[in-house]
Design goal:
By secondary structure, the chain is an alpha+beta fold. It is built from 26 helices and 24 strands. Strand 4 and strand 5 form a beta hairpin. Helix 9 packs parallel to helix 10, helix 20 crosses helix 24 and helix 23 packs antiparallel against helix 24. The radius of gyration is 30 Å and the shape is elongated. Bound molecules: adenosine-5'-diphosphate and magnesium ion (MG).
Length: 628
């Protein structure tokens, strides 16, 4: 006897749900898309317990007839397409006719709908696939779908759900992906009875972007537009200096739907090539309008991927749209001129000079944020004093600094303290004093390289690469020995982050603690920076750092784990905190850098594997000059 059976309907729906309903955010996506298809001008989303207890979506759209309530929750029933040919001419967000059925197979669903002309509304409840009766009730025109106890019927999935914060974060990101493409619709998102997003209808995409990602970013975006044969590319794209550490900042919409597409991505990458660091990603919001007959959207269960009729043409249009803009905008000029005024640039330059030349205390007093630091959390190192403090301020011991500056903070702006050495007869010398000859015989050229005389020739050092390696080793060692010093900020720094980044706080909590960074959720799309490694405190822009770190964790966190991920994070920390090419160095700093070079493990290469040092022996020189 045959063993193959047709599956019961409830099981078919549940299998379909497995494809498109992963978490509360997926439910929100499906319900909001239905509301848009119904012509809604206002859509309200309510979450309770991160969507676990309740997800409700209400709209003021066209509603459903009572007769349509049962088909609405039936598998493969839709009002949006009728025949084969329609599949290649999709004008709506939905068409598969399985979202409501899928959701109803894994949760308790209540559907309430009223057509604008009707006197009453009707409701239908579905529980574990069991349909109740269609009953009249009172409700305003439009549709409300309530989804309760998501995955109650599928405990395995329910277990995968994360904390409320994280789930709300995913919902918010999902909302962004829909709302950015539909600025003409008003949205409201409520979580635990608190409104987290109120997005007024607007004709302006830039406004929507500002609503989600802040004015600061929205303001600098450059508009692009290109009309082609059946393809219109419109967008708002960031100038190259606004790059990010993750590809998620590439928002591409096709006919109002968020998609991921390798042809478009490639074109974007190509357009920004050589304008941004190859390891960074641009920020773009691209809105493509393509004839529905020129694209197949029936490729992926959540429709996030598409198949183009002519992918090369689409690629070319996107590339051309961006390229035209970049050629037409003097980016370099903007880079220096637009973001910083002349005065400000001079101030920054002066601050940099101060940073390198003045004793710690003077420069700290000018920085209000640093004054707001609480004492460090761990006892400071008992290593050698930092070379600068000893040299520049003969009378100023740690006690002098303690009022305004925590003792450990001093290190942040100086070189890391020299490593502890075995006790010797003479008192511990500072690194600079230890290397008088090297310092005297070193010269900074082009504010980027150090040329140093050695016993048998010269070496040329890339100051950034070497400092990066030194900081990397320092961080690594301190972490291994559990003596990484952190500073608690009295006023936590609030950083606005993309909502789906909150997940990193949970999934990488251990790593963050390890590297001395304490971040707490501070709302649906912001985090509060509570502590920061002292070593980096004054060397990096903390908000930027947090953004890039969360990007890195989200991008690499899935592939890299443990040691490798830690390596990447330390790498990033070292790179950001190291002196840059173009930074002037004082003789003391050169001396300290050279002294540290001796001790840093593998100092001949930076953490990326590039060399830090080139050597030319006297022999090489003689050969070059044909002396022998
Ligand atoms: P699809 O959107 O692919 O058609 P769904 O399962 O999401 O499939 O919805 C089934 C049908 O229910 C839709 O085709 C539509 O007719 C109706 N429907 C769902 N949500 C709404 C809504 N908010 N307003 C009006 N009709 C709706
Ligand atoms: Mg749908």
């Amino acid at each position: 006897m045959g063993i193959i059976r047709t599956l019961p309907q409830s099981l078919i729906s549940r299998i379909a749900a497995g494809e498109c309903i992963e978490r509360p955010a997926s439910v929100v996506k499906e319900l909001v898309e239905n509301a848009l298809d119904a012509g809604a001008g206002r859509i309200e989303i309510t979450l309770r317990d991160g969507g676990r207890e309740l997800i409700a979506v209400s709209d003021d759209g066209g509603g459903m007839d009572p007769d349509d309530l049962v088909p609405a929750v039936t598998q493969h029933a839709t009002s949006k397409i009728r025949e084969d040919a329609d599949l290649f001419n999709i004008q709506s967000m939905g068409f598969r006719g399985e979202a409501l059925a899928s959701i109803a197979s894994v949760a308790r669903v209540r559907l309430v709908s009223r057509r604008p002309g009707a006197d009453v509304a009707h409701e239908l409840t579905v529980e574990a696939g069991e349909l109740g009766a269609v009953r009249p009730c009172t409700a305003p025109p439009g549709t409300t779908v309530e989804v309760r106890d998501l995955f109650y019927a599928v405990p395995a999935r329910r277990k995968f759900l994360r904390t409320n914060q994280t789930e709300v974060g995913h919902v918010t990101e999902q909302l962004a992906r829909i709302a950015l493409a539909h600025p003409e619709v008003e949205f409201l998102l409520r979580s635990q009875d608190r409104v987290t997003h109120r997005l007024a209808a607007t004709g302006d995409r830039r406004q929507r972007i500002a609503d989600f990602y802040g004015e600061e970013l929205a303001r600098v975006l450059l508009p692009v537009r290109r009309d082609g044969d059946g393809v219109v590319v419109e967008g708002l794209v960031a100038p190259p200096q606004e790059s990010r550490g993750s590809g998620k900042w590439e928002y591409v919409f096709l006919n109002g739907r968020y998609i991921r597409d390798r042809f478009v991505s490639h074109a974007v990458k190509e357009a920004y090539r050589s304008l941004i660091d190859p390891h960074r990603y641009p920020v773009v919001f691209l809105f493509l309008t393509v004839r529905p007959t020129d694209v197949d959207v029936n490729v992926h269960p959540t429709k996030i991927e598409v198949r183009w009729r002519d992918s090369n043409y689409v690629h070319g249009q996107v590339l051309a749209a961006l390229r035209e803009k970049f050629l037409g905008t003097r980016l370099e000029h903007r880079l220096q001129g637009a973001s910083l005024g002349d005065d400000e640039r001079e101030r920054v330059r002066q601050a940099m000079v101060d940073f390198f030349t003045h004793p710690p205390r003077t420069s700290y007093e000018g920085r209000p944020r640093v004054g707001a630091m609480a004492p460090p959390q761990h006892a400071p190192d008992v290593g050698a004093p930092s070379p600068q403090a000893t040299q520049d301020q003969p009378g100023a011991g740690p006690a002098d600094n303690s009022a305004a500056v925590a003792p450990g903070a001093q290190e942040a702006r100086n070189w890391p303290a020299a490593p502890a050495r075995p006790p010797t007869a003479r008192p511990m010398p500072s690194a600079a004093l230890d290397m008088p000859t090297a310092a005297a015989r070193a010269l900074q050229v082009h504010r980027s390289y150090l040329v140093v005389e050695t016993d048998d020739g010269v070496m040329i050092i890339d100051q950034h690469a070497l400092h990066e390696r030194i900081l990397y080793e320092e961080l690594r060692q301190r972490i291994a020995e559990r003596r990484l010093e952190t500073q608690r900020l009295l006023l936590p720094e609030i950083v606005r982050v993309p909502p789906d980044r909150l997940e990193a706080l949970e999934s990488h909590a251990e790593l963050l603690a390890q590297v001395g960074i304490e971040l707490t959720a501070a709302g649906p799309q912001s985090v509060a920076l509570q502590s920061f490694p002292t070593l980096l405190l004054e060397r990096v822009d903390q908000s930027r750092f947090v953004l890039d770190l969360l990007d890195l964790l989200a991008e690499q966190g899935r592939r890299a784990t443990g040691e490798l991920l830690l390596h990447r994070v330390l790498d990033m920390m070292a790179c950001k905190a190291a002196v840059k090419a173009g930074d002037p160095l004082t003789p003391d700093e050169i001396a300290a850098l050279l002294a540290r070079r001796e001790h840093a493990e593998r100092s001949s290469h930076c953490p990326h594997g590039r060399p830090t040092t080139l050597r030319l022996s006297l022999r090489d020189l003689e050969r070059q000059f044909h002396r022998r």
